[in-house]
From TrEMBL:
<keyword id="KW-0408">Iron</keyword>
<dbReference type="GO" id="GO:0005829">
    <property type="term" value="C:cytosol"/>
</dbReference>
<dbReference type="InterPro" id="IPR007457">
    <property type="entry name" value="Fe_traffick_prot_YggX"/>
</dbReference>
<comment type="similarity">
    <text>Belongs to the Fe(2+)-trafficking protein family.</text>
</comment>
<dbReference type="GO" id="GO:0034599">
    <property type="term" value="P:cellular response to oxidative stress"/>
</dbReference>
<dbReference type="Pfam" id="PF04362">
    <property type="entry name" value="Iron_traffic"/>
</dbReference>
<dbReference type="GO" id="GO:0005506">
    <property type="term" value="F:iron ion binding"/>
</dbReference>
<comment type="function">
    <text>Could be a mediator in iron transactions between iron acquisition and iron-requiring processes, such as synthesis and/or repair of Fe-S clusters in biosynthetic enzymes.</text>
</comment>
<protein>
    <recommendedName>
        <fullName>Probable Fe(2+)-trafficking protein</fullName>
    </recommendedName>
</protein>
<dbReference type="InterPro" id="IPR036766">
    <property type="entry name" value="Fe_traffick_prot_YggX_sf"/>
</dbReference>
């Protein structure tokens, strides 16, 4: 019988610099997805998804465009690393 180990469901989040619940699955089926699952909390990832949606909509991006994909990937890394990322008009980040 398998026992529940809470530590297996936690990750040291690179955005929040603390142990938080991790993503249940990698967000992408590749090494980058595995890296994100191992270094980004579910909280930070969910915030990124909301921001990503706003950036795509506000900038009228087509995710089949390689330039749009590159832009979103760049903004994702900046957001998750607490660097200066592009914010949608009127955007205020969630309070920690």
């Amino acid at each position: 019988m398998q026992t529940f180990n809470p530590a297996e469901h936690m990750v040291f989040c690179r955005k929040y610099k603390e142990n938080l619940p991790k993503l249940p699955n990698p967000p992408f089926p590749n090494a980058k997805g595995q890296e994100i699952q191992n270094t980004v909390s579910a909280k930070a990832w969910n915030e990124w998804i909301e921001l990503q949606t706003m950036l795509i909509n506000e900038n009228h991006l087509s995710m089949i465009d390689p330039n749009a994909k590159a832009f979103i990937n760049e903004q994702r890394e900046k957001f998750l690393d607490n660097a200066d990322y592009q914010k949608p008009q009127g955007y205020t980040p969630p309070k920690a």
